[in-house]
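Phosphatidic acid phosphatase type 2/haloperoxidase domain-containing protein: structure tokens wanted.
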Amino acid sequence: MTAVASRRPPAGRTAGATSGWWLGAPPVIALLAAAGAVAVYAVFVRTRLGQVVDEAAMRGAEVEHQRVVSVLNSTLDGTSLLSIAAVAVVAAAVGLLRRRVDLAVAAGVLVLGSNLTTQFLKRELTRPPLGDPAPNSLPSGHTTAAVSVAFALVLVLPYATRAFLALAGSLYVAVIAIATVWAAWHRPSDTVAALLVTLGWGALAVTVVRLRRRAEAPPRAASRLATLPLALGAAVAGAIGAIGLGAVVVSERFIPGLVSELAAFIAGAAGIAGCTAGAFLIWVWLVAEGEVRHRND
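Answer:
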């Protein structure tokens, strides 16, 4: 049976040796996620070059393939506020059924906190008319909603389902995020900021769970069945996105016309996919390390 966490801690690990790192890692990740979101806003919203590159990636989303268009339309249409709320309620209910009130509460905090923060930032952040005069749209509400409920399900469901859920969730979120860019609802930076906002809230929720359970058995380690595919996806897609967006920068600054708008969109989509895989990789590690071993596991 597939499991996201191993039955024993890594060799040489003791509760005393890991307690500081085990409790300290989630708030550090939360701070890094917040800093990342600030950096995305500073670069892609507050600078002219950032706005131009971001806009180029969105303008190039002219998808003509009928099946691709159908998938993107169906995915966006299925991501409604009601469906997201229903999944969030299911996630909390699963936590209660497992007699893990802490996980149910953490899932609720994760979903509510990330979505409320996204709506607040989208309303309050300003976008100077440096390259694109359109109003601010960072972070993406659709992406935040999708990733928050995916994170919540991975958090509350049993080990045997987590690897599959993490991989399926990362694919679903990547499609949602790319679809919002294709539909010209959001720029790539909006979706990356949404991932970081949600990861930050998730790390804070895991911090509370770990503080409550710090006196129990040693934690599990994340399974390679989930981490290896996510790490590979983050590395490959992230590299393609970074190289492609770098080429867009060169095109905008030095060699106009070097990169087509479609190539810019593909680079942006690859970057989104890489960031999504990276966020889920960190999340799988956090929730696996956030659990403890029980005698009946």
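The CA atoms of residues 190 and 287 lie 25 Å apart. Residues 17-290 form one domain.

Cheers.
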